[in-house]
Design a protein that fits this description.
- This protein is mainly alpha-helical.
- It is 67% helix and 3% strand.
- It is built from three helices and two strands.
- It has helices at 21-51, 59-81, 92-119; strands at residues 7-8, 14-15.
- The protein has a two-stranded antiparallel sheet.
- α1 (21-51) runs antiparallel to α2 (59-81).
Amino acid sequence: IPQEYLTKTTGGSSARASHNLTMALLVDHGVIGAGLYFIIVISCIRRLFLSKKIRVSSDEIINLKVLLLGLVCGLVGLMVASQGSNSKKLEIGIWLFALIPPAYNMLKVKAEELSQLSSQPEK
């Protein structure tokens, strides 16, 4: 590739650059790394659909569902925006990956607690 088409790095040298997240993952980590990344994204989205099965209703459950929805929508929005630019180095995706599983687990635990409380006979 001619020098004028290469991306200038901070050290002043030129290098090839990927222009979106998918290509950056494929260039830097190969098919296996890109596959692992997208498996993590799909598992986060899957948790949102699994949360629809929780039928217990309380303000706390609704708040946790809204929180989970916001986190997953943020992740999907980041993925869509990343198809126009390489945002792999941004920490927000990592934070979303880190926050979605605990939010889902909190939702599950709270729903189990509330369902056990409602199924206990009153004295």
